[in-house]
Amino acid sequence: MKKELWSPSNDMLFEVLPKLSTKDLLKLKCVSKEWQCLISDRSFIQVQLKNMEPPSGFFYQGRYQWCDEDYDWISYMPISGSVATEEVHNDVLDFLPENVVILDSRYGLVCCRSIFPCNVPLIYICNPVNKEWKAIQWPNSSRESSIALVFEPLKKPINEFTKFQVVIVSHQDETSTEGDRYGYFSFNIYSSETGLWRRSGEICYCNHNMLKKGCVCVKGIIYWLTDGDQILMFDPENEISWLISIPLPRNQFNLKPEMCLGEAEGRLHYVLICEHGLQLWVLEDRFTSQWDLTYTISLEELENENNKYLFKIAEKLASNFNTDDIPWIGTLAFKDNILLMRVSVNIYLYHFETRKMRHLCSLSALAPKPFFVATVVPHTMSLVPLGQS
């Protein structure tokens, strides 16, 4: 009777276990060989992915502001729902064959690249949970390129193998026959189904450069912030690019605003901190650049509700209180209504639903020397395999 109840073929197990978090399932794999086989099965993982777990943490890798050298120290700040653990891990990606630069993460898979300089630069797709990884030859080793991971397991199931794409976007400057200079973005696409790169025929004319704040992928469409008032969009499935106007032009502010892109509930969000306060915008129509303001709180309200962490925030912003031109407050990453932000030398989580901040760690805990400029990538744990079934 007991043996039949706990059989992996029992429908009850297949119905109940996928509702658990990845963290809980990792513990349950130790119950028995049968449970380990069930939880490792691709069909089981496909069902479990539909639960859409909240972010489990954030990768943080500092960047030198005034030089092109890569910094190899990657920190991982785990969180659990609305709780910050105040722990930092520096060995999450140590299973890879070399030190890397973090780029992107999607449904548990992490995209990173070799550190420059190197003889043969590679792009790595890996899963820190099962420590599986795949190396991809890089067709273009330009440091100015931006690399994005497109992985949509709910649209392209992983039952047979894990299907994903890697997109490299590069910016070029050209001179016309009349002597006018213009810029444009071009795109290279890698498919795990073919194992090949191909150059997209799509180009997007734009004289702005991408900000080094990473990218956001929403339902297979990638978005990048630029140093202008536009967001670059690329749809790799249909090979369509577009420039989307940001909600508020930068020249409307007296102080330099801080912003970042993020995803929640399958929609693109734009987080803005300026003299008017903290705002959250959601993109309603990318082709008409229609945004809706879904959340706003003044700096005074933000400080009053979080006076344990904030003090005279409006005054410090107005007086241009900074160090080496680094803003006193910065937006780092947004995911599922959670904002990772920096205030002075500390990292905080801000929950839009509760309007409360929580201290996560100090900058000094993230690297041997503090970095105010960094690549920050939200990460959600998953059991997605990269090997063949």
Automatic annotation (TrEMBL):
<dbReference type="InterPro" id="IPR017451">
    <property type="entry name" value="F-box-assoc_interact_dom"/>
</dbReference>
<dbReference type="InterPro" id="IPR055290">
    <property type="entry name" value="At3g26010-like"/>
</dbReference>
<dbReference type="InterPro" id="IPR056592">
    <property type="entry name" value="Beta-prop_At3g26010-like"/>
</dbReference>
<feature type="domain" description="F-box protein At3g26010-like beta-propeller">
    <location>
        <begin position="100"/>
        <end position="302"/>
    </location>
</feature>
<dbReference type="InterPro" id="IPR036047">
    <property type="entry name" value="F-box-like_dom_sf"/>
</dbReference>
<protein>
    <submittedName>
        <fullName>F-box/kelch-repeat protein At1g20790 isoform X1</fullName>
    </submittedName>
</protein>
<dbReference type="Pfam" id="PF24750">
    <property type="entry name" value="b-prop_At3g26010-like"/>
</dbReference>
<dbReference type="InterPro" id="IPR001810">
    <property type="entry name" value="F-box_dom"/>
</dbReference>
<dbReference type="Pfam" id="PF00646">
    <property type="entry name" value="F-box"/>
</dbReference>
<feature type="domain" description="F-box">
    <location>
        <begin position="10"/>
        <end position="44"/>
    </location>
</feature>
